[in-house]
Amino acid sequence: VSKLIMERRQKKKRPCGTKQIPVFVALIVLTGTSSLYFVFILPYLIKTYHFMIAIMNGVITFMVYLMFARATFTDPGAFPKAPESEDDENDLRQPLYRNTEIKGITVKMKWCETCRFYRPPRCSHCSVCNNCVEVFDHHCPWVDNCIGKNNYRYFFFFVFLLTLHIVSVIVLTGLFFYQNRGKNLKENIIPIIILVIGSLAAFPVMGLTGFHIGLVSLGRTTNEQVTGKFGSGHNPFDLGCWVNCCLVLFGPLPPKYRGYKAPKRRKPKKQLTTQPIQLPNNQLPKNEPLHTQHIQIELEPVLEPMPRSIVKGGGWTGIQTSNVPSKNNDRVLATYEVSV
């Protein structure tokens, strides 16, 4: 059953290149609109009003890009998958839910067939990233990452600062357009483009920012709000508006989880052993004791067995070779253990 579920999930996955399309679209729109504003609008505002406008816009824009990068590349708090074992072939033996009690409220922990463990409270499995994420909020296609416990604050500040950036650009561009309203359309085409793009982006971004401000104050996640987990009862994770904001946005972050790594097996060292080569008994002289001696001779690179005529009335008892380079590196030494 678990193998069939895994195969279906893998088929539903989009190719890796298509997942980055929303990220590139967001970056192109943000960078293009901001560039038009800084090149054509901001110099006029600095001359007319004050240079502090440029400093304010520069700091906000830099922080927007910084929070965007942190939300994109920070691990959201993904739990490593449990190592596979023979017992995992039949997941039907595991109960689907286990209950735990938090502040007098029963919270269900669901068995994850993909990661092979019971999900902790507030943890959910992301079908896009194929990981169980701690305090899962949602999967954001605009940053191509899950939003969880470790990177939620960066996502929140990204959305909040992006709202400030869009509002400031719209207001200051509108002021520029109002003071130059007597000019023809060609001279005002740049501020019109900025105002149109900024207005289209302002409403959804401002709505998203207000939505997450409410979630943080209530101590909820987007997943809990959409699924209605604590809609009818008390939320055991709600610590009050002030404590929720401080804990979520400025609290300490947990370390990154590491998966189980099996110990590496050491490969046994190869040892050279001498194996005896015995001849039939009829080739050995009768009633004559055997004396063993070592004969060291030089051979050409292609080793050939020693002719039997070298040993007078004897037989091979063992052969041992050792690579000892000579001056010309074209000969090797071989030690023959001969019975004579």
Automatic annotation (TrEMBL):
Keyword set, alphabetical order: Acyltransferase, Membrane, Transferase, Transmembrane, Transmembrane helix
Organism placement in taxonomy: Eukaryota, Metazoa, Cnidaria, Hydrozoa, Hydroidolina
Biased composition range(s): Polar residues: 271-285
Membrane topology, as annotated: Multi-pass membrane protein
The protein's Enzyme Commission number: 2.3.1.225
Organism: Hydra vulgaris
Region (Disordered): 262-288
Family matches, as PANTHER family: ANKYRIN REPEAT AND LEM DOMAIN-CONTAINING PROTEIN 2, PALMITOYLTRANSFERASE ZDHHC8
Transmembrane segments: 21-42, 48-68, 154-177, 189-211
ATP-binding among keywords: no
Family the UniProt entry places it in: Belongs to the DHHC palmitoyltransferase family. ERF2/ZDHHC9 subfamily.
GO cellular component, one term: membrane
PROSITE patterns: DHHC
Pfam families, per the entry: DHHC (PF01529)
Gene: ZDHHC8
Domain of life: Eukaryota
InterPro entries documented for this protein: Palmitoyltrfase_DHHC (IPR001594)
Subcellular location: Membrane
Recorded domain comment: The DHHC domain is required for palmitoyltransferase activity.
Palmitoyltransferase DHHC domain segment(s): 108-227
Keyword Zinc part of the UniProt annotation: no
GO molecular function: protein-cysteine S-palmitoyltransferase activity
Name assigned to this protein: Palmitoyltransferase
Catalysis: reaction(s): L-cysteinyl-[protein] + hexadecanoyl-CoA = S-hexadecanoyl-L-cysteinyl-[protein] + CoA
